[in-house]
Structure formats: C-alpha cells, structure tokens
Specification:
By secondary structure, this protein is α+β, with helices and mostly antiparallel strands. About 15% of the residues lie in helices and about 40% in strands. The strands form three sheets. A four-stranded mixed β-sheet has the order 1-2-3-4, with no helix packed on it. A three-stranded antiparallel β-sheet has the order 7-8-9, with no helix packed on it. The chain has a two-stranded antiparallel ribbon with strand order 5-6. The chain binds zinc ion (ZN). Zinc ion (ZN) binds next to loops.
C-alpha cells in the first residue's frame, strides 16, 4: 500500500469508529476487588500486582448483567486485553453471551462494535 492509500485507510477507520462508537469510550481501570456497582464506561481489570485474573464490565445491551472475561493464561475461554495510550481498551476475541440477552460484540479501542448475526 502506498502512503496515500494508507492515509485514506486511516481516515476511513477513524470515520468507521465514529459511526460505530455511539456511546462513550470504555477505559480500563485496575482494581484488586470488583466494586458493588460498575461504571458502564469502564472495563475493570481485576488482579493483584502483575497478575490479572479477569476483566469485568456491564453488558452493553443494558440488560444489567455483568460480563466476566477470564485473563489467566490457563483459563478457558481466555481473553487478551490491550490497554492503549489513551487508556481505551481492546479485547480479543469477541465477547459472546451464550445465555440471556445473547449479546455478541467486539471491544476495539474502547468502542463496542456489535456483531450482527
Ligand atoms: Zn445484555
């Protein structure tokens, strides 16, 4: 790809993020214990010291459930979290609730990208 295309692609991605990211960006917060009430715009990274045990966030569909994503290396399923320089977060792979609201989404740079399926 030449640089003009790269620039165009970057603008397109930014535009796409703007289109898909209607709520406030999710940012990471490190905690040792999950609080009783979770902020909808935060991904809680629960752990101690260098260890992260799991990530937790409110379900983006507003059903009121808390979603838990295991981060321990020997856990299954297991997610990997990236905290970006602006403190926004990405999760890999996507989060798919198999029960209840069955929400399925990607978390990319703090944006909830709904999976249409
Ligand atoms: Zn839900």
């Amino acid at each position: 790809m030449n640089s003009a295309w790269r620039t165009l692609w970057r603008y397109f991605k930014r535009f796409w993020r703007w289109v898909t990211c209607r709520r406030a960006r999710l940012t990471a917060i490190r905690v040792e214990e999950l609080p009783n009430k979770l902020d909808t715009n935060k991904l809680y990274l629960v752990g101690e010291g260098d260890y992260l045990w799991f990530a937790a966030m409110m379900c983006p569909c507003d059903c009121g459930h808390i979603l838990y994503m295991g981060l321990m290396p020997d856990q299954k399923p297991k997610w990997s979290v990236t905290v970006h320089h602006d403190n926004s977060v990405s999760l890999f792979p996507s989060v798919w609730r198999k029960v209840g609201c069955k929400t399925h989404f990607w978390l990319r740079n703090g944006c909830i990208i709904r999976h249409k399926g």
